């Protein structure tokens, strides 16, 4: 599994919800949090490509959930 897929899987395994939505020529909209569409998200952002979107998720998950297993494993 490549790094991008591993980060997404590890977020999922850590029960940190995320959404990546695309619309051609408008980039990627990103949401992260323990919430959902009904309860809201803790962070939202945009990126120009998938790699940057996943990196944004990694950074925000570490920032928002510093005590999580995910943050412990991915902190640089």
Write the layout of secondary structure elements.
Blueprint: H1 3-13, E1 17-22, E2 28-33, E3 43-47, H2 50-64, H3 69-74
Antiparallel strand pairs: 1-2, 2-3
Helix pairs in contact: 1-2
Number of strands: 3
Q: How many domains is the backbone divided into? A: 1
Major sheet summary line: 3 strands, antiparallel
Report helical residue fraction: 40-55%
As laid out across the biggest beta sheet, the strand order is 1-2-3
Task: Indicate the mean pLDDT.
Answer: 92
CATH fold type: Double Stranded RNA Binding Domain
CATH architectural type: 2-Layer Sandwich
CATH first level: Alpha Beta
Report on this structure.
The protein is an alpha+beta fold and 76 residues long. The chain has a single domain (3-74), classed as Double Stranded RNA Binding Domain. It is 42% helix and 22% strand. It is built from 3 helices and 3 strands; from the N terminus they run αβββαα. The protein has helices spanning 3-13, 50-64, 69-74, and strands at 17-22, 28-33, 43-47. It has a 3-stranded antiparallel beta sheet, covered by helices on one side. Helix 1 (3-13) packs parallel to helix 2. It is globular. The mean pLDDT is 92.
What key attributes describe this structure?
76 residues, alpha+beta, Double Stranded RNA Binding Domain, three-stranded antiparallel beta sheet, 3 helices, 42% helix, globular
What's the gist of this structure?
This protein is α+β, with helices and mostly antiparallel strands and 76 residues long. It contains three helices and three strands; from the N terminus they run H-E-E-E-H-H.
């Amino acid at each position: 599994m490549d790094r991008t897929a591993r980060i997404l899987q590890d977020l999922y395994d850590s029960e940190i919800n995320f959404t990546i939505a695309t619309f051609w020529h408008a980039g990627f909209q990103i949401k992260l949090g323990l919430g959902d569409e009904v309860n809201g998200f803790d962070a939202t952002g945009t990126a120009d490509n998938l790699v940057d979107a996943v990196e944004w998720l990694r950074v925000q998950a570490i920032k928002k959930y510093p005590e999580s297993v995910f943050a412990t494993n991915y902190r640089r």
